């Protein structure tokens, strides 16, 4: 099934000229750049001695139109360019077919042709103006680009809401959103809070200063300064200076490796750029690109998607890592709070489980608890309380995984222990800690079998 991507140009001409003159002028310019216009068949091909069907770049149609009234006399050429898409019967969507079109052998030639075509149109003598009426090619690029903007826009909202709820002031959506943004959110979207903002607002939430009421206090404190202010006086003023949410909350969740990667990929390792300036600049660029997508702006380069991908991927990576850091920090803080509120017995049990884990990490030469758990699951058997009861072999391994699981339940506030359970578990832990050197290790032939299986699977 063949469909076409249509590009349509409205070209205003200064003087009376024939269609053949116009096409001949364009053909001469394109010929020097490696393309041939076949006027009788109305097609453009790659310039070669033996033109085959595979060499065809596009077909075209041109109409001459006279506009004549008392106020204006003009001549127009209406030029339509058709790029063929050979699609499967099921792929009846032009933009879905565009993905396949991009992978076709002649696609690079088409991209090269498009880059020079518009420029050569403008260079033809007597052309007054060129208006692009439709460009399905760029429409597909814009449509393909939207999911990237959608992803980063919504991830950014999640980051703002999580950060401000976990670390910001109470009622932060009223007290710590810049006043300009609160005024700009449309009335019917105010109840959505940050999710009712536009993309351009997200950068302002990060970087515009809040706490405008503090400015007067700062000025008053400066006016009241003595001739030789102390460091304490200066600190008081600094503490009162209005800050952005970035300075107060978001700079602490920066992942330096992510920012370094962004500097390397987008800014040629410019170490003079601050973290704040880098993020602010990228969001400003993305906001402009987002507006082009939202308004179907065809005045974009054919490499628009590639540029967008280069700018969004490292930012999406940073946001995801920042979200993980917030959650990990929150889990750690939660666990620390839980520990403070645990009973003496629960705390004693947690400490013994930690001792068991620490000694087993040394015994199995592993770096952390997660690697220990993975090692036990991979090399022995997965923890299942019911199954473990029926497995006499490797009982210590099963008990160990039970206690690692129990530690999680206690710290997650999912389980409270009775005095009988505490006594029983306490004795079992003492036994396990003293049995470390008798824990089973993986047999050498089992390791070799695993390695062979891994090679086969690869």
List the helices and strands and how they pair.
Elements: E1 2-13, H1 19-31, E2 35-38, E3 43-46, E4 56-68, E5 73-86, H2 94-102, H3 107-122, E6 127-135, H4 136-167, H5 172-175, H6 179-184, H7 199-207, H8 214-223, H9 231-240, H10 245-248, H11 256-266, H12 275-294, H13 304-341, H14 344-363, H15 369-379, H16 385-389, H17 395-411, H18 419-434, H19 444-457
Antiparallel strand pairs: 1-5, 1-6, 2-3, 3-4, 4-5
Structure report:
The chain folds into 3 domains: 2-125, no CATH class; 144-208 and 244-325, no CATH class; 342-444, no CATH class. The chain is 58% helix and 12% strand. It contains 19 helices and 6 strands. The protein has helices spanning 19-31, 94-102, 107-122, 136-167, 172-175, 179-184, 199-207, 214-223, 231-240, 245-248, 256-266, 275-294, 304-341, 344-363, 369-379, 385-389, 395-411, 419-434, 444-457, and strands at residues 2-13, 35-38, 43-46, 56-68, 73-86, 127-135. Strands 2-3-4-5-1-6 form a 6-stranded antiparallel beta sheet. Strand 2 (35-38) and strand 3 form a beta hairpin. Helix 4 (136-167) runs parallel beside helix 7 (199-207), helix 4 (136-167) runs parallel beside helix 13 (304-341) and helix 7 packs antiparallel against helix 12 (275-294).
| Unreliable spans | 444-458
- Please bin the fraction of helical residues: 55-70%
Class of secondary structure makeup? alpha+beta
Which series of helices and strands comes N to C? EHEEEEHHEHHHHHHHHHHHHHHHH
- By DSSP (H or I, 4+ residues per run), the number of helices equals 19
- Total beta-strand segments: 6
Number of domains: 3
User: What is the overall shape?
Assistant: elongated
What's the Cα radius of gyration? Answer: 34 Å
């Amino acid at each position: 099934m063949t469909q076409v991507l249509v590009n349509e140009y409205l070209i205003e001409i200064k003087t009376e000229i024939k269609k053949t003159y116009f096409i001949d002028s364009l053909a001469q310019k394109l010929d020097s750049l490696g393309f041939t216009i076949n006027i009788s068949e109305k097609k453009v091909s790659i310039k070669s001695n033996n033109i085959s069907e595979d060499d065809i770049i596009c077909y075209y149609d041109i109409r001459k139109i006279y506009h004549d009234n008392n106020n204006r006399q003009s001549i127009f050429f209406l030029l339509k360019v058709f790029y063929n898409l050979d699609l499967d019967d099921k792929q009846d969507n032009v933009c879905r077919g565009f993905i396949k079109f991009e992978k076709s052998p002649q696609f690079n030639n088409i991209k090269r042709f498009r880059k020079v075509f518009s420029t050569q149109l403008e260079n033809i003598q007597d052309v007054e103006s060129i208006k692009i009426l439709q460009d399905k090619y760029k429409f597909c690029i814009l449509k393909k680009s939207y999911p990237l903007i959608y992803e980063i826009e919504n991830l950014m909202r999640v980051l703002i809401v999580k950060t401000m709820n976990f670390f910001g002031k109470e009622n932060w959506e009223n007290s710590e959103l810049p006043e300009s943004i609160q005024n700009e959110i449309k009335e019917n979207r105010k109840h959505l809070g940050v999710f009712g903002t536009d993309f351009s607002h997200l950068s302002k939430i990060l970087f515009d200063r809040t706490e405008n009421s503090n400015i007067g206090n700062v000025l008053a404190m400066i006016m009241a300064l003595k001739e030789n202010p102390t460091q304490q006086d200066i600190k008081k003023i600094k503490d009162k200076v209005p800050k952005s949410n970035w300075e107060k909350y978001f700079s602490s969740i920066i992942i330096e490796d992510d920012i370094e990667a962004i500097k390397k990929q987008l800014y040629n390792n410019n170490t003079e750029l601050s973290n704040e300036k880098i993020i602010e600049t990228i969001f400003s660029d993305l906001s402009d690109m987002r507006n082009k997508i939202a308004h179907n702006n065809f005045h974009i380069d054919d490499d628009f998607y590639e540029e967008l991908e280069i700018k969004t991927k490292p930012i999406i990576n940073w946001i995801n890592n920042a979200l993980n850091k917030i959650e990990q920090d929150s889990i750690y803080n939660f666990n620390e709070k839980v520990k403070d509120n645990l009973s003496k017995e629960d705390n004693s049990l947690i400490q013994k489980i930690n001792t068991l884990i620490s000694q087993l990490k040394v015994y199995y030469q592993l770096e952390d608890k997660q690697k220990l758990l993975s090692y036990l699951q991979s090399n022995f058997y997965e923890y299942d309380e019911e199954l473990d009861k029926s497995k006499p072999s490797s009982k210590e391994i099963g008990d160990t995984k039970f206690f690692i699981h129990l530690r999680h339940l206690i710290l997650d506030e999912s389980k409270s222990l009775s005095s009988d359970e505490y006594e029983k578990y306490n004795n079992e832990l003492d036994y396990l800690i003293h049995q470390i050197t008798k824990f089973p290790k993986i047999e050498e032939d089992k390791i070799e079998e695993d390695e062979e299986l891994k090679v086969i699977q690869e």
